[in-house]
Amino acid sequence: MKILGVILDEGLxxxxxxxxxxxxxxxxxxxxxxxxxxxxxSDKVLKVLYQRALERILLYAAPAWWAGTCRQxxxxxxxxxxVMLAITGAFRxxxxxxxxxxxxxxxxxxxxxxxxxxxxxxxxxxxxxxxGEEITGPDLEVYHNTWIHPSARARVQWDKNHPSSSLSIYxxxxxxxxxxxxxxxxxxxxxxxDFQFRLEDHNSVFQAELSALHQALIWKNANRHLQTCDxxxxxxxxxxxxxxxxxxxxxxxxxKAIIDESVSLHxxxxxxxxxxxxxxxxxxx
Length: 285
Prior knowledge:
alpha/beta, 47% helix, elongated, nucleic acid binding, RNaseH_domain, RNase_H-like
């Protein structure tokens, strides 16, 4: 029985599915081998095609059928071995371990276990052990899809202007020596104040930039809710992702949920001597 591209047999051991996948990959591989001889496809091209296409076919819906049994591992290794022989042009007597070294391809069983582990982290378990390392839920960014009517989605606009206003906020995020930080710098009249935040070491600079924007908006809504405000950032990627209709990122959704018409977003170039931007850059480090 075939459901959504996965063959289910009576024993639920996935061997029928792997046999189906082996036939599919073999047919594609035969055509690629012919193209290699007639069209001059290089080893690098074949490797890219495997990693971008054939490996995806091999690992499709792996969390639904992978159990890590010896028979599954042998079948997966056998399928991948055919591909590595075609890529390297090695003799058929070459050991599988040597083929992995020559081709630079990660064993499919290892990649399969990694994808299953990520799936369980996202949907089932709060933590698990993978290759002797403990992986916890907070180490992985998980998107919880919440449907919002298109008319209710805020349209975020930004520009490259640098207006003067009674309330200006500069935001920044940084990652130095594995340490991640975020900060925002508030300028109101003649007074200034810095707010700094420490993030987890596994967070990226992009996440730090978004966190700085998020915290700045939270502060503004709590302390200067009705006052117009200009927020400046040197992260164009953060501004562009805020314009996406469905960003599929929890932090982006949270930023868009609390931004209102009293806030104007602006992009500023980094390290050109703008006082507020230089101050927040130091605060984020």
